[in-house]
Amino acid sequence: MAIDPHPSIPPLHPGELLSEEILPKLGMTKVAVAEKLGVTRQMLGHILSGKSPVTAPVAYRLGELVGNGGRFWLALQADYDLWHLARRAREEKPLRMRSWRRSKAKKPEDAPQRKEVA
Fold this sequence. Notes:
The protein is an all-alpha fold. It has 5 helices and no strands. The protein has a domain at about 15-90: lambda repressor-like DNA-binding domains (434 Repressor (Amino-terminal Domain)). The longest helix is centred in the C-terminal third of the chain and has 22 residues, at about 70-90.
């Protein structure tokens, strides 16, 4: 999957694909899918609505359930996360780099001398 192929079009959240395409074809209830994935019904609802990410354990179980492997689901989540991160970075002002010049007090001969403890 390509990262940020269209800067103005966000990629699908994995939950959106799961909700709109996969669950109807599985013919399972959300409760049954949540049990198979080892998550609560509420957590599945958060994933389906895009409020929660697909984690590695959930991606693995989704891949087993659907038959397309966990990497597919993690890649969808990574594309989604990176697209939103890049968009936020484009909207923010660039950070200004501070000058790292040394002041005179930072020279070894100007530094405070340690007192020796006897």
